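Example record

One chain of 226 residues, shown exactly as stored in the release files.
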Amino acid sequence: MIKNNGRFIIKFEEQDKEFVENLDWEKLNEGYDKAKNFFEYEGEISPIRINLIYSPEEYLFFSGYLKHENWMSACAGYHNTIYIFAPSVIEKYTIHKKEEILKTLIHEITHFFYGYSAMKKSMAKLSLWDEGIAEYIAEQNNNKEIDFEISTLSNFTDNPSKNYILGYRLIENIMNYFGDGGNKKIIEFLTKVVYAKSEEDLFSKFEEVFSMDIKTLMELKGGIKK
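Predicted structure tokens for this chain:
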């Protein structure tokens, strides 16, 4: 079954018809606008296709990943398509609840805006910032303290979950400290580090743009565990 709803097209099976009909489409549109405004993106990303999937095998087929972990519930793909486990099976194959689907969709929409903005504005595409901004826009507050060393401003390859934990706190603290101009500071930083060759370059540019080091910023709201 396929349903068109403004800038969104969703493909689903009969068992999820009621969920799709009752999805808060207004909230989804608000999330879209929030992501668009954050990146000061001109134009639209439309249509956004939402493809509900029903097995880990489908997820691997569409995502291109070699293995499905139970924390994986969605991914952003080509042609502005979001692949996400259907509400009827999400709790069977992942650790997530069907009530989280709306925020997850907003999270994935934010990845689209980051990707297109990175191309248009010549910004660096850094996993830490990508996940952090998406978590922030979708209001996926993980309430976790930073109990690990902040050794990178690009990507925690040893444990990708750190990108979500630190990323959210990082963006939240920037937005709280700089207010309405916080997103401009983030865009400025990502633009200035597009040709950065090392972590040292990233940390140096961070201090230049935000006028403080990362530890000082993270301690403003007690994000770092003492």
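Notes: The chain has a mean pLDDT of 95.
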